Amino acid sequence: MQALIFDVDGTLADTEAAHLAAFNEAFALEGLGWHWDLPLYTRLLEVSGGKERILHYWRQVQPELTDIGHGVRDTVARLHELKTAAYERAVRQGAVQLRPGVLKLIETAHDAGLRLAIATTTSPVNIAALLRQAIGPDWSYRFAVVEDASTAPRKKPDPMVYRQTLARLSLPAAACLAFEDSANGLAAARAAGLATVVTPNGFTAHHDFRGALRVLPDLSGVTLAALRAWHAEAVHRDTEPGITS
Protein backbone atom coordinates (compact mmCIF):
# COMPACT_ATOMS: atom_id res chain seq x y z
CA MET A 1 0.00 0.00 0.00
CA GLN A 2 1.68 3.16 -1.25
CA ALA A 3 -1.06 5.78 -1.37
CA LEU A 4 -4.38 6.78 0.19
CA ILE A 5 -6.95 8.53 -2.00
CA PHE A 6 -9.74 10.53 -0.36
CA ASP A 7 -13.09 11.82 -1.51
CA VAL A 8 -13.98 15.14 0.15
CA ASP A 9 -17.67 15.91 0.72
CA GLY A 10 -19.09 13.53 3.30
CA THR A 11 -15.84 11.58 3.57
CA LEU A 12 -13.28 14.00 4.97
CA ALA A 13 -15.97 16.13 6.59
CA ASP A 14 -19.72 16.19 7.17
CA THR A 15 -20.26 18.94 4.62
CA GLU A 16 -23.71 18.17 3.27
CA ALA A 17 -25.75 20.09 5.86
CA ALA A 18 -23.70 23.20 5.08
CA HIS A 19 -24.10 22.60 1.35
CA LEU A 20 -27.88 22.26 1.80
CA ALA A 21 -28.13 25.54 3.70
CA ALA A 22 -25.99 27.21 1.02
CA PHE A 23 -28.22 25.96 -1.80
CA ASN A 24 -31.31 27.32 -0.02
CA GLU A 25 -29.59 30.66 0.58
CA ALA A 26 -28.78 30.90 -3.13
CA PHE A 27 -32.37 30.12 -4.10
CA ALA A 28 -33.66 32.81 -1.73
CA LEU A 29 -31.19 35.41 -3.03
CA GLU A 30 -32.41 34.77 -6.57
CA GLY A 31 -36.04 35.07 -5.49
CA LEU A 32 -36.92 31.50 -6.38
CA GLY A 33 -39.66 29.65 -4.57
CA TRP A 34 -37.43 26.63 -4.11
CA HIS A 35 -36.55 25.15 -0.74
CA TRP A 36 -34.81 21.81 -0.31
CA ASP A 37 -35.59 19.97 2.91
CA LEU A 38 -33.53 17.08 4.27
CA PRO A 39 -35.48 14.21 2.65
CA LEU A 40 -35.44 15.94 -0.74
CA TYR A 41 -31.74 16.79 -0.53
CA THR A 42 -30.91 13.23 0.48
CA ARG A 43 -32.56 12.05 -2.74
CA LEU A 44 -30.88 14.77 -4.80
CA LEU A 45 -27.46 13.63 -3.56
CA GLU A 46 -27.86 10.67 -5.90
CA VAL A 47 -27.00 13.23 -8.60
CA SER A 48 -23.30 14.11 -8.37
CA GLY A 49 -22.26 17.73 -8.85
CA GLY A 50 -23.88 20.94 -7.63
CA LYS A 51 -24.80 22.35 -11.04
CA GLU A 52 -26.06 18.97 -12.16
CA ARG A 53 -28.17 18.72 -9.00
CA ILE A 54 -29.75 22.13 -9.59
CA LEU A 55 -30.59 21.29 -13.20
CA HIS A 56 -31.98 17.90 -12.23
CA TYR A 57 -34.30 19.53 -9.69
CA TRP A 58 -35.32 22.25 -12.13
CA ARG A 59 -36.40 19.57 -14.58
CA GLN A 60 -38.41 17.88 -11.82
CA VAL A 61 -40.39 21.01 -10.93
CA GLN A 62 -40.64 22.17 -14.54
CA PRO A 63 -40.99 19.03 -16.70
CA GLU A 64 -41.49 21.11 -19.84
CA LEU A 65 -37.89 22.32 -19.51
CA THR A 66 -36.47 20.41 -22.46
CA ASP A 67 -34.33 23.06 -24.13
CA ILE A 68 -31.24 23.56 -21.97
CA GLY A 69 -30.05 26.75 -23.62
CA HIS A 70 -27.69 29.51 -22.52
CA GLY A 71 -30.35 31.17 -20.35
CA VAL A 72 -30.88 28.06 -18.25
CA ARG A 73 -27.17 27.32 -18.03
CA ASP A 74 -26.42 30.92 -17.03
CA THR A 75 -29.04 30.75 -14.27
CA VAL A 76 -27.65 27.45 -13.00
CA ALA A 77 -24.12 28.87 -13.04
CA ARG A 78 -25.23 31.99 -11.13
CA LEU A 79 -27.07 29.92 -8.54
CA HIS A 80 -24.01 27.73 -8.09
CA GLU A 81 -21.74 30.77 -7.64
CA LEU A 82 -24.04 32.14 -4.94
CA LYS A 83 -24.22 28.73 -3.29
CA THR A 84 -20.42 28.37 -3.32
CA ALA A 85 -19.97 31.79 -1.72
CA ALA A 86 -22.50 30.91 0.99
CA TYR A 87 -20.75 27.60 1.65
CA GLU A 88 -17.34 29.29 1.93
CA ARG A 89 -18.73 31.71 4.52
CA ALA A 90 -20.19 28.84 6.53
CA VAL A 91 -16.86 27.00 6.50
CA ARG A 92 -14.97 30.11 7.62
CA GLN A 93 -17.44 30.47 10.48
CA GLY A 94 -16.69 26.93 11.66
CA ALA A 95 -19.87 25.23 10.45
CA VAL A 96 -17.97 22.24 9.05
CA GLN A 97 -15.55 19.96 10.90
CA LEU A 98 -13.42 17.03 9.76
CA ARG A 99 -14.95 13.67 10.59
CA PRO A 100 -13.54 11.64 13.51
CA GLY A 101 -10.15 10.09 12.80
CA VAL A 102 -9.57 11.89 9.50
CA LEU A 103 -6.88 14.37 10.56
CA LYS A 104 -4.98 11.79 12.60
CA LEU A 105 -4.96 9.34 9.69
CA ILE A 106 -3.78 12.02 7.25
CA GLU A 107 -0.97 13.07 9.59
CA THR A 108 0.06 9.50 10.42
CA ALA A 109 0.06 8.41 6.78
CA HIS A 110 1.99 11.49 5.68
CA ASP A 111 4.60 11.00 8.40
CA ALA A 112 4.92 7.33 7.40
CA GLY A 113 5.79 8.31 3.84
CA LEU A 114 2.55 7.27 2.19
CA ARG A 115 1.40 9.47 -0.65
CA LEU A 116 -1.94 11.18 -0.16
CA ALA A 117 -4.36 12.26 -2.88
CA ILE A 118 -7.78 13.81 -3.26
CA ALA A 119 -10.21 12.54 -5.89
CA THR A 120 -13.42 14.54 -5.83
CA THR A 121 -15.77 16.16 -8.28
CA THR A 122 -16.44 19.13 -6.02
CA SER A 123 -14.94 22.49 -6.93
CA PRO A 124 -11.36 23.49 -6.04
CA VAL A 125 -12.79 26.50 -4.17
CA ASN A 126 -14.82 24.22 -1.89
CA ILE A 127 -11.82 21.96 -1.24
CA ALA A 128 -9.53 24.86 -0.37
CA ALA A 129 -12.13 26.48 1.91
CA LEU A 130 -12.62 23.28 3.90
CA LEU A 131 -9.02 22.11 4.21
CA ARG A 132 -7.56 25.55 4.82
CA GLN A 133 -9.91 25.89 7.78
CA ALA A 134 -9.50 22.30 9.04
CA ILE A 135 -5.78 21.66 8.44
CA GLY A 136 -4.22 25.07 7.89
CA PRO A 137 -2.94 27.27 5.06
CA ASP A 138 -0.32 24.69 4.09
CA TRP A 139 -2.91 21.91 3.62
CA SER A 140 -1.97 21.33 -0.02
CA TYR A 141 1.55 20.20 0.93
CA ARG A 142 0.04 17.07 2.49
CA PHE A 143 -1.39 15.91 -0.83
CA ALA A 144 0.71 14.73 -3.76
CA VAL A 145 -2.26 14.96 -6.13
CA VAL A 146 -5.56 16.84 -6.08
CA GLU A 147 -8.10 16.02 -8.79
CA ASP A 148 -11.39 17.92 -8.71
CA ALA A 149 -14.23 19.30 -10.83
CA SER A 150 -11.85 21.57 -12.71
CA THR A 151 -9.79 18.63 -13.97
CA ALA A 152 -12.36 15.81 -14.07
CA PRO A 153 -15.62 17.10 -15.56
CA ARG A 154 -17.32 13.71 -15.62
CA LYS A 155 -18.97 13.17 -12.25
CA LYS A 156 -18.99 10.05 -10.11
CA PRO A 157 -19.99 7.21 -10.59
CA ASP A 158 -17.84 7.76 -13.68
CA PRO A 159 -14.31 6.66 -12.68
CA MET A 160 -12.60 9.53 -14.53
CA VAL A 161 -11.42 11.37 -11.42
CA TYR A 162 -9.90 8.20 -9.94
CA ARG A 163 -8.20 7.17 -13.15
CA GLN A 164 -6.66 10.61 -13.50
CA THR A 165 -5.53 10.51 -9.88
CA LEU A 166 -3.82 7.15 -10.41
CA ALA A 167 -2.17 8.42 -13.59
CA ARG A 168 -0.76 11.46 -11.80
CA LEU A 169 0.43 9.30 -8.90
CA SER A 170 2.04 6.94 -11.44
CA LEU A 171 0.72 4.05 -9.38
CA PRO A 172 -1.48 1.06 -10.20
CA ALA A 173 -4.83 0.78 -8.45
CA ALA A 174 -3.54 -2.26 -6.55
CA ALA A 175 -1.02 -0.02 -4.75
CA CYS A 176 -3.67 2.36 -3.43
CA LEU A 177 -6.65 2.49 -1.09
CA ALA A 178 -9.65 4.78 -1.60
CA PHE A 179 -12.00 6.34 0.96
CA GLU A 180 -15.60 7.18 0.09
CA ASP A 181 -18.97 7.85 1.71
CA SER A 182 -21.54 7.21 -1.04
CA ALA A 183 -22.67 4.59 -3.52
CA ASN A 184 -21.68 6.80 -6.46
CA GLY A 185 -18.23 7.31 -4.99
CA LEU A 186 -17.79 3.61 -4.29
CA ALA A 187 -18.87 2.74 -7.84
CA ALA A 188 -16.36 5.22 -9.27
CA ALA A 189 -13.49 3.92 -7.15
CA ARG A 190 -14.28 0.27 -7.84
CA ALA A 191 -14.57 0.94 -11.58
CA ALA A 192 -11.02 2.30 -11.40
CA GLY A 193 -9.92 -0.92 -9.69
CA LEU A 194 -9.50 0.53 -6.20
CA ALA A 195 -10.17 -1.26 -2.94
CA THR A 196 -12.41 1.13 -1.03
CA VAL A 197 -13.17 1.86 2.61
CA VAL A 198 -16.58 3.49 3.04
CA THR A 199 -17.62 5.70 5.95
CA PRO A 200 -21.29 6.58 5.38
CA ASN A 201 -22.92 9.65 6.87
CA GLY A 202 -26.50 10.57 7.67
CA PHE A 203 -27.22 11.37 4.04
CA THR A 204 -25.77 8.15 2.60
CA ALA A 205 -26.32 5.49 5.28
CA HIS A 206 -29.14 3.96 3.22
CA HIS A 207 -26.93 3.44 0.13
CA ASP A 208 -25.90 0.01 -1.16
CA PHE A 209 -22.21 -0.49 -0.34
CA ARG A 210 -21.73 -3.98 -1.71
CA GLY A 211 -18.20 -4.23 -3.07
CA ALA A 212 -16.65 -2.07 -0.35
CA LEU A 213 -13.55 -3.42 1.39
CA ARG A 214 -14.90 -2.19 4.73
CA VAL A 215 -17.90 -0.12 5.80
CA LEU A 216 -17.14 1.80 9.01
CA PRO A 217 -19.00 4.46 11.02
CA ASP A 218 -15.92 6.71 10.78
CA LEU A 219 -12.11 6.52 10.78
CA SER A 220 -11.57 6.95 14.51
CA GLY A 221 -9.27 4.24 15.79
CA VAL A 222 -8.34 3.09 12.28
CA THR A 223 -4.59 2.49 12.17
CA LEU A 224 -2.18 2.21 9.27
CA ALA A 225 -1.54 -1.38 10.32
CA ALA A 226 -5.24 -2.17 9.94
CA LEU A 227 -5.40 -0.44 6.57
CA ARG A 228 -2.36 -2.35 5.34
CA ALA A 229 -3.91 -5.64 6.44
CA TRP A 230 -7.23 -4.85 4.75
CA HIS A 231 -5.46 -3.71 1.60
CA ALA A 232 -3.38 -6.90 1.47
CA GLU A 233 -6.58 -8.90 1.89
CA ALA A 234 -8.12 -7.10 -1.10
CA VAL A 235 -5.06 -7.58 -3.29
CA HIS A 236 -4.91 -11.28 -2.42
CA ARG A 237 -8.62 -11.72 -3.11
CA ASP A 238 -8.48 -9.94 -6.45
CA THR A 239 -5.48 -11.93 -7.66
CA GLU A 240 -6.77 -15.38 -6.75
CA PRO A 241 -7.50 -17.58 -9.80
CA GLY A 242 -11.11 -17.26 -10.86
CA ILE A 243 -11.74 -14.25 -8.63
CA THR A 244 -12.56 -10.90 -10.19
CA SER A 245 -13.49 -7.59 -8.60
Q: Would you mind describing this structure in some detail?
A:
It is a single chain. This protein is an alpha/beta fold. The protein has 2 domains: 3-15 and 96-239, Rossmann fold; 16-92, DNA polymerase, domain 1, CATH 1.10.150.240. It has 9 helices and 6 strands. Strands 3-2-1-4-5-6 form a 6-stranded parallel beta sheet, sandwiched between helices. Strand 2, helix 6 and strand 3 form a beta-alpha-beta unit. Helix 1 (16-29) packs across helix 4 (70-92) and helix 3 packs across helix 4 (70-92). The protein is globular. The relative contact order is 0.16. The mean pLDDT is 94.
Overall structural domain count:
2
Helix coverage percent of residues?
40-55%
Gap between N and C termini: 18 Å
Rg value = 18 Å
Largest beta sheet: strand ordering: 3-2-1-4-5-6
| CATH classification class of the largest domain | Alpha Beta
Question: What order do the helices and strands follow?
Answer: EHHHHHEHEHEHEEH
Shape: globular
CATH superfamily of the largest domain: HAD superfamily/HAD-like
- What percentage of amino acids are in beta strands? 5-15%
Structural class: alpha/beta
**CATH architecture assignment name of the largest domain:** 3-Layer(aba) Sandwich
The biggest sheet amounts to: 6 strands, parallel
Name the poorly predicted regions.
none
CATH topology of the largest domain: Rossmann fold
Highlighted features:
single chain; about 240 residues; alpha/beta; Rossmann fold; DNA polymerase, domain 1; six-stranded parallel beta sheet; 6 strands; globular
